[in-house]
Amino acid sequence: MAGGGHHQSVRLDPAIERWSAMRENVYQNFTFTRRASRTAIALGILVPGAIALVAMAYDEKFDMAGKRRGESLITGQSGAKPAAKE
Amino acid sequence: MLSALLLIPLIGSLALLPISEESGVTRMKQIALTTSMVNFIVSIVLWGEFDSSSLQYQFVQEFNTLSFCHLNIGIDGISLYFVLLTTFITPLCILSNWDNIKFGMKYFLIAFLLMETLLIAVFVVLDLMLFYIFFESVLIPMFLVVGIWGGSVTRIRASFLLFLYTLAGSLFMLLSIMVIYYNIGSTDFTVVSLSNMSLDAQKVLWLGFFLSLAVKSPMVPFHIWLPRAHAEAPLGASILLAALFLKLATYGYLRILITMLPDATSYFSPLVQTMAVVTLIYSSLATLRQTDFKALVAYSSIGHMAIVILGLFSNTIVGIEGAIALSIAHGVISPAMFALVGGVLYDVHHTRTIRYYRGLAVYMPVFVAMFFITTAFNMAVPLSLNWVGEALSLAGIFQKSPIIGVLGASSIVLSACYSIFLFNRLSFGAYSQYLSFTTDISRREFMLVLPMLLVALIFGIMPNVIFTDLHVAVTQLLYAVEPVADLTNIEAAVDALGGK
Prior knowledge:
By secondary structure, chain A is mostly helical.
């Protein structure tokens, strides 16, 4: 394998190891502070809620197939204008 | 032929049992690799014999003499490619851990051959209860592989997360299956899909199935198990998890939710779109913050599966075919990413922390070249099957809900961000002060990654090879297609049509 088949240890840096361990285990020190709570509510409830409202409001609302000029894109509405007279 | 696909890995694993580990490690590896290669060749023959114009399941085998279950197996266009993916990936899994398993090699190989049989069984059974049994049974060998041969002391937590999350979610699927059996009297796919369930009943059943499949996909907020499992698993298990375990959920969505519960699927589409978009954006942003390159690739898998789900629930042929293509593409490219970072780099340096790596292009130019191509395919550049799948999935969901399609298209930018970040960070700049001189990627590692890239490239240039087999099966998902008359017998056809 790469390295000629031998394991070549990386020169460990204690600072990087501490930082990496801190990043991996950050969940153990999580508490619902004011900032964390605001973030959780915003990202866990408000943003998904807004996306859900958009999804429910606009699901199958638009029909873009085979539309001609003047026709509405909204499903169920034709709205075609009469052809221009020459 | 399908039963051969199921039995060959089992026979291979039985052949490994009498070999002792002290003297026969090389022979064990050769037997396991040969077994999986033979299975792959059988699946290629199956592919060659497959009739892409048939409406029915093909290669159907019924085992009605079994007293404890009604075992029917068969494939259609959808399951064909998942079976091919399984038989293609398994030899690569065995090859990936050729040199770095220091103990228990026999049981490691037996676990992978067993998982191959169980995964193929999930994709070929035509019964809900058997689907559930095999869907759950793959967890047991994977739990053992991650827990025993995993990378660090945190592997135990990772294996328990993997096992308990997916098992807990799947209990709701079992409840739904039992309700279906109690009300319909059968769990056969065809019988259940033809039964007339009320919308209210479908909604409740749909939620039970969806919870299980959402954990398996995974979708936010049920995704916690995946980054830990991928990061701690040995390379072969990471490859199998990324390539196939996530596709079990894709297959479940297609076979169960879309086929058997279509009204509830339509009703809950906004919910699925919401969860998929949230999963896509949140996982992509989380990917940018990762310090462990295996966890980074794992989080990117979550984002890609979210696009698959958007395509599946687009209620369009374009979207569903794109989702299946993206599933196959992700099933080859994500393992390639794991093989490069989690195999080549980790095997040499034994650290997954991105901070230690820089300037690999100086001493490993071939590795960097392959890593570049893999990264490019991972972010869905044209000429790759990833691009075909992603573009069609987004086109499909755009037809259904343009705003959700636009939000989903943010994945194009975000995946480019984290992919280019990882590639640039590892490859360029001055050679890292923490690393010693090393040789480039070995022949075995090169041959491990090359087939995956070739599959993504060839099918990316010629995706119709896949779509030809998918058209009939996917059309049947959305439209009830039944043969009007049997045209092989003209007299009977004329009678069937009223003698006119």
